[in-house]
């Protein structure tokens, strides 16, 4: 063999090795951008194993997809114009993303379900003067609004988009985040609710490209209130649930922002501290000043008439006043700051799943039992209600509160989330039991279900769910039928067995499926009742696919499962 031949073989061998190495290298499949705790842009490419593989250009414009609805939502809310529920009449195929014929949909649900008809140009009050948020729109979006062609193909860079989301004021941001939670509670992301909780408050999107391919993802805020955006190949029904866990891990920050500053439109709780323990005197410590009435800033020692004392700390959120010549301390707290302080005072921030469960219970309790008072919910700090720490919440407790922010025990009213340190019973969460269950690997949803078997999970803004009156006979019938149904549906695109179900007696209206794998039906004795049960089962089985929102498809499948001709 000649030298030239040997050299050619060597080059070919090196080329082959390079090709093998390239093929073995995990290609980036996710683009992820967010603003960190210092407001710095982070833009990374991620491989299929969830590992960082360099960066990507976040300054390159990309199509908005259905994120344009966030722009319309912001204009509507900021303009202060009353919302106009959209009536579904069954004439437009796009209504499948909105509501069933004869029903209506409100603004928050329209955002979470990506109902484009709700945000049609002739419905949004674009004629109203732009507020601060709309004035901060990136130029490309502002021009699209002016031209009247804002839509899925409008392009903006992730860098500019994230800066705009970061400019939203707390009140508007909190409202949007609570509305977006519906995606995880009773939308396509319901199967990840146990993993995600409220840690991702995002609007999903899918972009159709000219070559027939699709890019999808989501954008919004993390539990730590940091804007984020991500994209991968596929549809949002596949991309968002699959990547939620890695996105949370990659964007997680060790810094937890404090609940400080003006409440500015956020839900607040007014606490009467030490309501059952009369205060004798308040002693300033370490240079703190004392003015009555006035704000407390610094550390103080509170002496009670009983002879005991406790140290407190305030950055101005606590107020000292004299009522009937006796000192009284109150505090106006943001709701999640309040929940975090309850965790610190009543239990602990670990184990995490137990703390999440307690956060949902505490939030449910104050929303149900708090008395409206001058824009806040008023509640006493007592063992009969909820004890509240008179010191700033710890970072771990704040993280547990924010991770579940907006989640409550379901009800047309908030179900009171009663709890006790070690004495649990039906309707009362035992912290001791919760820690044991978390230690055994149970998530916060299962812990809550054990303590409150007749309650589901809803968003704080959801007034449609009711406490569950269980129907065990329907559940038994369903258990007998489901294996056969699963075999029939297994070949359908988008089918996924919904797992453990909760079957509740229908209180009013029509049968429906909701968050936490729950269906509300009248019974199963008559054929129509059995069709209703099968109908709601199909809804849940296709919850992550557009077919699950197609009433004609769902009804046809339900009748087929029962062998009933259309």
From TrEMBL:
Signal peptide: 1-23
Keyword Signal carried by entry: yes
Pfam family, one: DUF2300
Record keywords: Signal
UniProt KW Signal keyword: yes
Annotated Sporulation stage II protein D amidase enhancer LytB N-terminal domain residues: 332-409
InterPro entries the record matches: DUF2300_secreted (IPR018748), SpoIID/LytB_N (IPR013693)
Full protein name: DUF2300 domain-containing protein
